[in-house]
């Protein structure tokens, strides 16, 4: 499912190098950013941001449709197609992937991987069905966690509904079901720019054998570094620090390289 010019995701070099992944949260045709999944503000044009990150040598790009309606989702798939025609880095698409058919639609519109979250909790076998059809490398399970009474509880519906799952338990389950990667977002840290929750990040990263992407809280380059060292993440996802040009992808990679982290420059 790869476009010409995209490096194979499972190459040895890719697995060794730590990845920097900007994330486009998309609503009503625009990139938005909130804090703790609330208070969204505009963060620019989808296509302009995508082109910027492609030119900036981001390792991958995540595109999350946070719009609720089916009509918005159709429009968003059209945007995915435009983005896929402009970028030559792996593209992950999430939001509303509730069936194999919807996953197929995303791939037909240019996605290299799909991200599933709410639907995976409601119907865990969906992970296996997508993996069997398109390969485990094409399935990312997004895990949104919030600390509740000392436990990391998995949440769905854009963080609005707590589930019965504890984060580490769910991470192991999705791995067994065929997920190729876990995108772990701390709802408590999301948009705060206070750093990743490296406690839960390490708990999961060190006990599963699939890559774990850190998400939620990056506010400076030190936070990226700590996500890799303290949190043992395989990749770091960030939005605010890149969308608003506080730092460039190159700055981030040069900083990490100078601190001894293997990155692709």
Commentary on this structure:
By secondary structure, this protein is an alpha/beta fold. The chain has one domain (18-258): TIM Barrel (Alpha-Beta Barrel). Helix content is 36%, strand content 27%. It has helices at residues 12-16, 46-55, 70-84, 100-108, 118-122, 125-134, 167-177, 198-205, 221-229, 240-243, 249-258; strands at residues 19-27, 30-35, 38-45, 61-65, 91-94, 113-116, 139-148, 151-156, 161-166, 181-186, 212-215, 235-238. It has an 8-stranded parallel barrel, surrounded by 8 helices. Strand 2 (30-35) and strand 3 (38-45) form a beta hairpin. The chain is globular. It starts with 11 loop residues before the first helix and ends in a 7-residue tail after the last helix. Residues 1-14 have low confidence and may be disordered.
């Amino acid at each position: 499912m790869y476009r010409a010019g995209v490096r194979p995701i499972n190459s040895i070099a890719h697995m060794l190098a730590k990845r920097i992944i900007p994330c486009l949260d998309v609503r009503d045709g625009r990139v938005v950013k909130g804090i703790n999944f609330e208070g969204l503000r505009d963060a620019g044009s989808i296509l302009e941001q995508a082109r910027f990150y492609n030119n900036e040598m981001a390792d991958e790009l995540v595109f999350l449709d946070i719009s609720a309606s089916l009509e918005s989702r159709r429009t968003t798939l059209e945007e995915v197609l435009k983005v896929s025609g402009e970028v030559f880095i792996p593209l992950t698409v999430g939001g509303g992937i509730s069936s194999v058919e919807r996953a197929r639609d995303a791939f037909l519109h240019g996605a290299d991987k799909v991200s599933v979250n709410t639907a995976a909790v409601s119907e865990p076998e969906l992970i296996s069905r997508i993996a069997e059809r398109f390969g485990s490398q094409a399935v990312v399970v997004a895990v949104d966690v919030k600390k509740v009474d000392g436990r990391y509880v998995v949440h769905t519906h854009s963080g609005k509904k707590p589930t019965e799952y504890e984060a580490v338990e769910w991470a192991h389950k999705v791995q067994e079901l065929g997920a190729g990667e876990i995108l772990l977002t701390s709802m408590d840290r999301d948009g705060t720019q206070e750093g990743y929750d490296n406690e839960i990040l390490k708990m999961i990263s060190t006990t599963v054998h699939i890559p774990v992407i850190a998400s939620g809280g990056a506010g400076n380059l030190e936070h990226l570094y700590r996500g890799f060292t303290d949190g043992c993440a395989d990749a770091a996802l960030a939005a605010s620090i890149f969308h608003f040009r506080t730092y460039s992808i190159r700055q981030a990679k040069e900083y990490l390289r100078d601190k001894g982290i293997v990155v692709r420059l």
